[in-house]
Amino acid sequence: MNHELKSRLEDYIDEYDPKVLTRYVKKDSELDEAIQECEGRTYSEKMYNALTDHEHSICERGNLKKYVSITKGYKFCGSTGKCECARDQVSKKTSETKQSLSEESIKKSSEKRKSTMVDRYQVDNPGKLPKAKENRKAFYDAKRASKGTTP
Ligand SMILES: [Zn+2]
C-alpha cells in the first residue's frame, strides 16, 4: 500500500474506535480496495497488513501468527509448546523488562540522590559541601600538627 493511503488509514485508526473503524474505512473506496487486496482472515487483519506490509504476520519459524487487533497486531503463532518463536519471545521480553526496569531504577535513584543534595545544599556532590571542606581541612591540619609541621 502506498504512503498516502497508509497515512490515511492511520488517521482513521487514530480517530475512530476499533468497533466502528471498519465501517468508516470501507466508505473510503480507494482505501478499501487497497485493503481488500491484502492478506488477512478478517478485515482488521487486512488493515494491519496493509499498514505494515505484511511484516509481522509470519513468525521466525515460518508459521502464521495469531492476529490480535489493529493496535496490537500479531502475537505468537501458537503456544510455547507449539512453536519456539513464542518461547524466544517470552524469554526475550522477560529479560528486556528486567533490564529496562533495573536501568530505570538505577537512573531514578541516582537522580533522586542528586536532586536531594541540590535542594538541600545547592551542590550536586557531597564533596563540594562547605562542611566537608572544613572537615577535610581540619583533618589535614590535625595530621600536620601531629607530625609537628604546623606553620
Ligand atoms: Zn512461531
Task: Break the fold down into its secondary structure elements and pairings.
Blueprint: H1 3-15, H2 18-27, H3 29-36, H4 43-52, E1 67-69, E2 73-74, H5 84-121, H6 130-147
Antiparallel strand pairs: 1-2
Bound molecules: zinc ion.
Report what the structure shows:
The protein is mainly α and 151 residues long. The chain has two domains: 3-74, no CATH class; 84-147, no CATH class. The chain contains six helices and two strands. It has helices at 3-15, 18-27, 29-36, 43-52, 84-121, 130-147; strands spanning 67-69, 73-74. A two-stranded antiparallel sheet has the order 1-2. A hairpin with a 3-residue loop joins β1 and β2. α1 (3-15) crosses α2 (18-27). The N and C termini lie far apart (85 Å).
Short description:
By secondary structure, the protein is mostly helical.
